[in-house]
Structures
1.
Amino acid sequence: MPTKYVCLGCPLTFEVGWFHHIFRNGYASKTLLVCVSCGTQHAVENAVSDRGPESFQYFTAYLTAAPPAARVQVMVCLRHHFRLDLAGAREALKALPYRIGSDLSREGAEALAAPYRAAGATVEIVLIRESPNPEYGPVQSDRLLVRDAPPPDGGLWRELAVAGANASLDLERQACGNCRKTGVLVSEWTDGRSCPACGGVIQGQGTWMT
Ligand SMILES: [Zn+2]
Ligand SMILES: [Zn+2]
């Protein structure tokens, strides 16, 4: 939750803190930073470390066989699972293959099949549908951004070069995009610290959520 701060003595305003933003292109959150030396607003777009599978797969699970020795226990599973009466469970076993679940993840289908298999039945898990994951792609590196004009206008976000080649950037090694000092970008403001621009009083204006 970012917090907004204003200077009571000059037009400086800035925000610091972390928030979620729309998951796109491998980024899912942003951390707002300020330079404690000159007051320039910065931000880090935080790359997600896992963009998920290339596609999502959906499975249907069929009960395909229940040998005589397993039938009683399999009927217990069917009755419990589908709230069938005894006659209903018998009918289900006569009508194999019997669909016991659909539109399942692989893990969901395996979990559903487990008690039937433990009872001695055969369950087949069939891939029925596959849809691409729109967020799939290469894992990105964190991006460091700076506001290219002072408040109140603020200008546009401009991307800065990141020191080192780490996906997760080290703020201690980063230079401010404006004053060029290193180790001055912070994501939390210390109460009582005076304005980097004019030495005046900085006042918190509360937090906001996305
Ligand atoms: Zn000020
Ligand atoms: Zn600076």
Note: The radius of gyration is 29 Å.
2.
Amino acid sequence: MKKYLFPIAMLTIFEIIAITLWLTKDNLFYLFNFSYIGISISFGLFLFIKKYKYARRITQLLVGLYMLVYLGLISNENMQIEGFWYYLFTGVFEAATIHYAVAKIFGVLLFGRGWCGYACWTAMILDFLPYKVPEQKRKNIGFIRYIIFGVSFVFVLTLFLSHAGNMERIMFWAFIIGNCVYYITGIILAFAFKDNRAFCKYICPITVFLKPMSYFSLLRVKCNKEKCISCGKCKKVCPMDVDMTDNSRKRQNGTECILCFECVKNCPKDAL
Ligand code: SF4
Ligand code: SF4
Ligand code: SF4
């Protein structure tokens, strides 16, 4: 039973969030929403423990498709960064602001960039591309993420200051167009840099929140130095160029880890 403690703990955390928001906001949607996400993540972790090859991908599709299709397209919730600014400016602690608080800001202190490995609907598509492990050296263009972050902020701020009408509709179309731009850019970059996760490494504005918070993450891959034989197999399979054999928080690309556990699966000595 001990090995199932982690999925049970994840389910418990999400149920606490689900019930708390349901009762405090008096809205049954939160119970359904966070229970569904918790069950999907726990199910993926359960499959991972059972050594099922596509465990992470199943969770990614369950959560990613739910958020993109049901929340985004059917319920008209803009869960992109523009939606976060929008709800923040309106002073409403709902939808995108709650989503960001749980998955991309405060939750990151607990479960790192699990969002990027198990839930993001952009990466859900990019992970189907052929370059699961980068075939080129990392580029020095990560500054682009800050430009996109600033542009998204100014875009929503301008709409507010100009008192643009029908903001809900504008946000819906911003969600559709934004996602199309992300997918096209992500696919082009993946092929140009031979790296499925190039978009995550250089462009994604959400990493402006994710990276600093994940530096302090409770959940992280650690290396047992007594078992490690320095074979380097772990680094060869990492999609994010992390030096997971270094246990310090300052390890190379440490804030990039998406907790995919490919390194753990491929370590011949169970050192990770
Ligand atoms: S870095 Fe951005 S695009 Fe990549 S998985 Fe994380 S949130 Fe999604
Ligand atoms: S794969 Fe395992 S044994 Fe090899 S370097 Fe990595 S942690 Fe050490
Ligand atoms: S391979 Fe290991 S270090 Fe690299 S992203 Fe996945 S879990 Fe993190």
Note: The first helix runs from residue 5 to 25.
